[in-house]
Amino acid sequence: MSGANYTELFLKISRNHSLTNISREEHLDILIKIMRSFQVIYHS
């Protein structure tokens, strides 16, 4: 699964706040962590 696929999935989840009960700020924090982990994978 590519980074774009994960981002798409993440956006679908973040649109449905009734499912997650997580604030927008927390979603952004999670997304940043996901993107950082992809950078580590791509560089190694």
Number of domains: 1
Task: Write down the overall mean pLDDT.
Answer: 72
Helix content: over 70%
Give start-end ranges of low-pLDDT stretches. none
Rg, rounded, reads 11 Å
Globally, the shape reads flat
Can you describe what's shown?
It comes from Dentiscutata erythropus. The protein is mainly alpha-helical. It has one domain (3-43). It is 84% helix and 0% strand. The chain has three helices and no strands. The two termini are 17 Å apart.
Reconstruct the topology from this structure.
Layout: H1 3-15, H2 17-20, H3 24-43
Helix pairs in contact: 1-3
Would you kindly provide a brief summary of this structure?
By secondary structure, this protein is mostly helical. The protein has 3 helices and no strands.
Short descriptors:
single chain; 44 residues; mainly alpha; flat; 25366_t:CDS:1
